[in-house]
Structure formats: structure tokens, C-alpha cells
Amino acid sequence: MPQTPHEEPAFSYGRARLFHADSLEWLKRQPENSIHGVVTDPPYGLVEYTPVELAKLRAGRGGTWRIPPSFDGSTRSPLPRFTTLSDAELDDLERFFRNLGAALRPALVPGAHVMMAANPLVSHLVSYALDEAGLERRGEIVRLVTTLRGGDRPKNAHEEFPDVTVMPRSMWEPWLLFRKPLDGTVASNLRKWGTGGLRRVSDKAPFGDVIRSSPTRPAERSIANHPSLKPQALMRQLVRAILPVGEGVVLDPFAGSGSTLAAAEHVGYHSVGVELDPTYLALASKSIPALATLNVRD
């Protein structure tokens, strides 16, 4: 278990512990070499999870969030508008993720991997910032998932330009993959720290960088009504891979509804989450046990 000095979690379940804190400040208080892997779905554009924008989202008024209409009788999840970010907001985004990388690095053991969900419109800024913080880029995991984002004709001119798509229909989601520099070779790092690589799917199959995934199903959304909820079928694959020998502690510094911690609990890992928003903290406290025990098709 990680050594968290003089701190009590807001919620515990099995091997999972959830803290109510600002993730950057929390990380600065953690002992060096105490986290063995990170799997997280951060606020891509920052502004969408500010108190002002969250209040608009919860009131159904939009703001940065686009509240899409129902489709085929199903209520569609809100989507943040990353095309509306100003130059100043993009600068803030890059600075934030550079600070996050700098705060993560001391807490990570050598060879620990970081898997971080991103959006194609801003992933280049996040990747550059993490690289500047001293983490090594190790590729990108592609989640193949078809959503209803993009593919629209020009607003208020769809009949005039029927053959035009403003942006491609979103059919994938990037997960950035970084690693703290090794302590020697991969083999020696694995012996000393239990990190340095990714856990294979099986004896015959390595962990691959393309994962086919369905959108999050209604059964899971009924448990954890979070706008960025990722399906457990995906999260369990990512979390399992993050600890190459199956030992250590997985961190999610933006715990949200607790899907990473639930996935870690399901596969038998120790995990720690940090969440600032009290509404999502309460949601995660209820969702983690239910998601961890949910039967899903991988």
C-alpha cells in the first residue's frame, strides 16, 4: 500500500482508497517512489470542470458543455467543446499538464507508466507538456470507439452544403503513454521496482496499442452518471496492463466517478484516487463497489 503521511481517505473499499483533495497539492505530499502506475481520464481542456461550467452542466444549460439532443430515443451524454478554447486557455492547459507531470515524477517509481486519456484536438499539447516534465513518451493507445461527436454539416447551412462535414466523425480516442525513466535496464528495473513494461494479455499475446471498445453502456451510466465515464471493459484492460508483474499501486489523480479504482479492485490491484469535486466524490463512493462487481463482456 502507498504511504500517505497523516492522511485519511474520504472513502475506502477493498484495496481502493479515495482522497478528497486537489491532485497537484496531494501529489506534492506523497513519498517518493510510492506509485507504480497511473491510469487517468483528466479534464482535457481544464475549463469544462471548473465550478462555473459544472454548474451549467448540472443545470442543463451547456456553457462549455454541449448538451446534444436525444437520438433514437436515447439521451446522449454531454460533450465539452474543445474548439472554443482560447489561446490563453490552451496555454493554461499546457502549463497545467507540465505541472502535473512535474508533480507525478517524484511519486512514481522508476519505470512506472502513465496512461492518460486525451482528445485529438488537444493531445499534442498534453504530450508536449508531459515530455517537458521529464517523462518519456512510449507511444499511444488507440481506443476504437464510434461516437456521435463530429460529422455534422455546417451549422445553419446544412441544406446549402449537404456534402460537407465540418469535422470528421469521431471514431477513436487517444490514450497517451509515458514512462518515468528506468533505473538501469528493463530487467533490472523489473526486479527492483516491479515496473518498466506492461503486462501481457496472455502468454501468446502482448498488450497491444489498439483496443476496440463500445461506448459506455446504459447499465454503467445508471450506476455512475459522469459525463466522461469510460466503460469497465476498457478500464479493466488498461489497469491490468499498467502493472507488469501484477504488483504495486495504481493512481488516478482525477478519479471522477471512480471507474479506474473500480477496475483496479476488479483485477485485484491496490489503487488510490484523488477527486476535488465533492459531488463526484460522493458519486465515486457509491459507484466503486457497484462497478467493481459488475459483470461486463471484455
Automatic annotation (TrEMBL):
PROSITE patterns: N6_MTASE. Gene3D superfamilies: Vaccinia Virus protein VP39. Keywords: Methyltransferase, Transferase. It comes from the Bacteria. Residues 35-285 form the DNA methylase N-4/N-6 domain. InterPro entries: DNA_methylase_N4/N6, DNA_methylase_N6_adenine_CS, RM_Methyltransferase, SAM-dependent_MTases_sf. Its EC number is 2.1.1.-. It is an enzyme of class 2 (transferase). Belongs to the N(4)/N(6)-methyltransferase family. This is Methyltransferase.
